[in-house]
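Ex. 9. Protein: S-adenosyl-L-methionine-dependent methyltransferase.
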Amino acid sequence: MSKIENKKQEEESSTTTNTMAWPDIEEEFVIPELLHIEGVKKLHMSIQNEWDYLQKSACQTAAGRALWKHVIHDPLAHLFAGETHLRNLHTKIQRDRLNNAREVSGVILAVRTLWFDTRIQAALDSFDNDATQVVLLGAGMDARSYRLNCLNKSDVFEVDFPDVLQTKTRLVQAAVSSREELKMTAKSLIEVATDIRDKDWFEKLKKSGFVPEINTVWVLEGILYYLSHTEAMQVLNLIAEKCTVTSTVLLADFMNKPSASLPNSVFHFYSDWPDQLLPSLGFSHVKLSQIGDPDANFGLLHNPLNLFNKLLRLPRTAQIHPDDGTPCCRLYLVEASGSPPPAKSIVNNVSL
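Predicted structure tokens for S-adenosyl-L-methionine-dependent methyltransferase:
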């Protein structure tokens, strides 16, 4: 069979079979009751009026988790997202459904969230019930401390801008005040108000109770590419240094150059080969996945002609797609780890 015939057969198959896992959303957007509370409305009004694009990206991520609720159970996602971001994403999903789109708005957020969830659990399981810490850098509107049971023996540190953490706390208080059932699943949750672009952020983390000698999972979801190259490398080098002190796991997503170089892009840092970069910093084990890979699919990307599956068929060196001339924008999901040599390991028996 020729390439042209094969391509035509794929296209016919994709149009006759509905292979997309659509979000379970209402046809008309319905505002959740919590968002009608006056205090909550004021908080989200200040977010829209005062926050910059980086801070607002936290609400956009929460909207993705809220509207992909058939695969992500996040009790705070609607509250954290707010009406504006929920309505915007709902409109995009409905348009995608109407057009029978091959990629549905928010699917990349859903896959990314599920990948981080599974890798966090796997990392914690690998520590064999030793004392553990989980650090969320650029935590934004993350609610894992309220939804992941695997955190029940871990101290969780959320690091972000002071106004983001303050607003987040007030939104959680509003949920509790409205008699919403809300139970923390983490052993403890510590907020660290600081900007990771500042040189003293790690000192502030330690002053908040972080112990460098305890096994740690570092979660950098949706944050690295907002940093400059210098800032991102400083963060990655600092985390890599901890591999000489204790068992350390880094979970992060990286954009490649075409992704960060789009017109009007707000992104800065990129890496085409994070699986080569991280070992050079001191990590001993690195595993890279792309959206659509077997461990980064979760049954949400069956259509062989969607953007992500098409990219998987191209070598990672490709910058421009040969079929349509569009940039090959990739998002890499990366797990890296390292530990000190057994003879030099610090016994991890700190009692918390």
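Check your answer against this statement. Residues 92 and 105 are 6 Å apart (CA to CA).
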